[in-house]
Design the sequence.
């Protein structure tokens, strides 16, 4: 099922000065694109290229995209990933990292508003997918790993309709225009 969610949220562009700042960052990103060009063998790049067709898509923000994680054993678990194919955090400019951090925090707030977790775990690992991304993992006092790291966890796969509903509920809190 296709979801039309080119949600462009300019979370930091609240005034002209910030607009200019963000434009400069976009130019830097574009200049760096050839250096960090996505590769055909990157699963995350492939996912991003077909994001509109994914029932896991929550929102495409200015610098990164939020997806539901397929495993919903921790209800509301999401991934925030950079649009660009960065492998190493040291290659990301400080400016871009700050902007991405703001978007990550907005995603966390939206997830918190919807699911009211007792804690949020944020993790950047990169063991399997070498495309920088954060895991946003809502934790609950009654979850089986409470008080410990979230892994390993049981697998909980939802129906297409349930993914679509969860994604829509987070997207509603994130706000922004749907193009
Ligand atoms: Zn990639």
Sequence:
């Amino acid at each position: 099922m296709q979801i039309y969610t080119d949600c462009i949220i300019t979370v930091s562009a609240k005034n002209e000065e910030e607009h200019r700042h963000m434009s400069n960052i976009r130019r830097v990103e574009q200049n760096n694109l050839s250096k960090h060009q996505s590769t055909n063998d990157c699963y995350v790049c492939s996912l991003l290229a077909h994001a509109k067709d994914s029932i896991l898509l929550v929102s495409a923000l200015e610098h990164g995209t939020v997806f539901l994680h397929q495993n919903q054993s921790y209800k509301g678990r999401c991934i925030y990933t950079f649009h660009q194919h960065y492998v190493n955090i040291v290659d990301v400019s400080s400016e871009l990292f700050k902007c991405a951090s703001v978007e990550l925090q907005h995603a966390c707030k939206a997830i918190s508003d919807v699911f009211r977790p007792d804690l949020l775990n944020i993790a950047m690992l990169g063991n399997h997918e070498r495309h920088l991304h954060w895991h946003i993992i809502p934790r609950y006092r009654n979850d089986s790993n409470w008080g410990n790291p979230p892994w390993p966890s049981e697998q909980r796969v939802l129906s297409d309709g349930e993914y679509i509903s969860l994604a829509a509920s987070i997207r509603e809190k994130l706000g922004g225009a749907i193009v």
